[in-house]
Hints:
Blueprint: H1 10-34, H2 38-52, H3 77-85, E1 100-106, E2 120-126, H4 132-150, E3 156-161, H5 190-199, E4 201-205, E5 207-208, E6 220-221, H6 233-244, H7 249-264, H8 272-281, H9 291-306, H10 309-323, H11 338-348, H12 352-359, H13 366-393, H14 402-416, E7 422-423, E8 438-443, E9 447-451, E10 461-466, H15 469-478, E11 487-492, E12 495-498, H16 500-509, H17 522-526, E13 531-538, H18 552-557, E14 575-582, E15 587-593, H19 597-610, E16 617-622, H20 628-647, E17 653-661, E18 664-671, E19 674-679, E20 696-699, H21 713-718, E21 725-731, E22 734-740, E23 746-751, H22 756-769, E24 783-790, E25 793-798
Parallel strand pairs: 2-3, 5-6, 8-11, 13-16, 21-24
Antiparallel strand pairs: 1-2, 1-4, 7-15, 8-9, 9-10, 11-12, 13-14, 14-15, 17-18, 17-20, 18-19, 21-22, 22-23, 24-25
Amino acid sequence: MFIEALPGSRNDKLSRSRDLAARLNQVRLARAQALLSPLKRQLLKLIPALFHCHARGLPGYNGPFAPSGIFDYRISPRVLETLKSLGLPEPESPSGLPAIEGIYTMGSSGSFGQNRFSDLDVWLVHHPELGPYELQQLREKADLIGQWLMQYQLEANFYLVHPRQFTSKLDDDAPDRAMGHEHSGTAQRWLLLEEFYRSHICLAGKTVAWWPGAQAAPDLLLLGDVHQQLAGEYLGAALWQLYKGLGAPHKALLKVVLLEAYASGEANQELLTDLLWKRTCEGDFSAGNDPYCILYERIESYLTKLGDDRRLELVRRCFYLKCGVRLTAREQSIDWRFYKLRSMVEAWGWDEELLQRLDASENWHAGQLLWFNRQLNELMIRSYQTLLKFAASRQLNSDMRIDELGMLTRKLHTYFSGDSDQLVRLNLLWSSGVAEQRLRIIHEHQFLLVRMQHDGDTEGELLFQGDTLAAVLAWACINGVATAQTAWFRDRGDDLIPDRRLQSLCRQILPLLPRNEIKVSKQDLCNPWYFRQVLFLLNLEQDPTGQWQGQEMMVDRLNANVLSLGRDKRNMLAGVDILSINNWGEFHIHHYQGDKALLQALVYVAPGLKRSKEEVKLDVLSHSQRLTAQLSQTVLNFLRQNARLSHHGKTATTMMQPVQIGKEQYGLFYSTTGLVWQDLSDTKSLFQQLVKGHVVSLPRPALPDEPLATLPEAIQHYATKGVTQYFLRQDGQDLDVFVLDEDNAQQHFVQKNSEIGAMVKRISHQFVFGAQHSPGIRFNMPQFFRLERVNGELTLSPFGIASRELNREF
Length: 810
């Protein structure tokens, strides 16, 4: 951390520091521009001009009141030429005080980490006196400029940054500081600032005073001292990097291992920012004095000291792939990174075969991607475990806000839960596509999905394996491995034959799936899960209709029950597979087999349908040889009835619908607590007299499997299996607490002399950061709800998140 003092007076030192920072900035800007196309190069130079000026006809114009002007910025003749070439008017420089202190890129721009897929992360450091309305206008202007740049395939993410954001306690609920898809909120403050200092490029405005011992000056931007970072922030930052790893695990792995290296060192260890500045002071402006290079060097030193060759090898591959330089490609241009990267690869001892495999990453198939993703996830979780132990041994806590902690862990749980019924979307990483022309299903102990490169390919490469045929089929459809043109094959004895019914089913499934990434709001993650879409697949593994000899026309004419057909009362439904999508963005697959499959499936979906606040998309597809339409319509009718009656359950009564399946008669009972079914065949009661298909309202009977009946109705609506829930009501100095565990087992107690916020914070941090963890990492943090009586009615609301934030995408 110690940097040798520069000789001379204080003014001389400051002058030299400015000169060094300016020279390094010029080098970085030139490197960033060298990796851009000529047009994008001009657009990068144009960004400051669009924020400096504000006039009708310019991109970003959103009315006359948006703040404009950048400190000490003047539009150059070259920028004016670019504006003219794009058909844009020549702007006038604004009058009055500038609203923006400076505009800076940060992250991979101008470093080894910049590649042709990289976007721009741009910080707009605004004047500290801008009010909420002015900030909103500036945010809208930034969004419009970002949309305009996207027309030219230049993706830029703009962030409004308060100049005292890292040194003062500001309003964390401010829209531009709230946690979201691209903003870490309070999860990492100082570590984010440290990354900004070592990687930023000043496009316009004040020089960033990022050197050790820097002091404030009118023409300098000093955002804070990175040496005052709190050790407890490592945990929040690690959670944030795991979350970012859901989209870009190769980048997140580098950062989370760096956090681990930082946490393992001494309190006065040299930060990467210090190392980079030290080399700059020594006159090192080479490719080696690069933010990404020194990041890799620190990780390599740490893992080498541990003797962890496996992680080091994966880190090297991630670093190489992040650079996007393909050393074996003939068409690869030789830029400023080429020779440095080649010397690094030679030192690692990589052979030509490995390099060619990595350089072909855009053509990796799903099996290769799945393997690489699993390695990345495993190593990221391992680093997080190390940081948890570090926190426990030093009794560290986190200053993260409760709502941010809850949303991060909830989102991580949807990915790292390890639930065997969950289908996790494949991260394509660098691959341009994973669609296969031929797929083969092999059934051994599990169902194996194999890619066939040629006709008659008897070996192929394994892509995925699942417990059910539906899991394999759904995974292939969800991840784009199967398309409408994909041919499917199955083993029949010693022969490999086309399965055209499976191909047809795949073609029917694909249009029903969401085409784009599922949007999840903060409110979604704070509330219990519910269904957005449910798809029933019928008779996928067993099909009794193949042995049925009747006439389908007569079934339609007589309106016969396909669940109890003919004199033998044969059930034509042997199995139900449920593919569901919930508001947390999760895909689940569930399998039910046998005569009671439909009953079990309806019971499973009822709570998720009941909790839904929007219309659920319901579909049924049959894989049967015969009676396809009849089975699909029958089950769809039950599914729609299930959705309707689940929403209309009353506290005092139960809605009952009889159903004949095979030779047995059952009753479906809908109430406020959900759905249960009973065998009515041997019951000497009113139920035997009910006409088939009618729904009746009955006095609420004592039914089994209703553990929630004693809870307040408001809590019954929110009760969700699979997550622990706390329902809290402040009663003077005491706290009334209802707890439902992951199996919906109840607990009720009164906590004396307690306050909601303090209790929620204690339980949350103990759950995530406590040393006493069960084996494995858990992200399934409890949900907390505030109970309040409004106009005599007990109401529920998620604890700790502002209402204006609820609908924001996370």
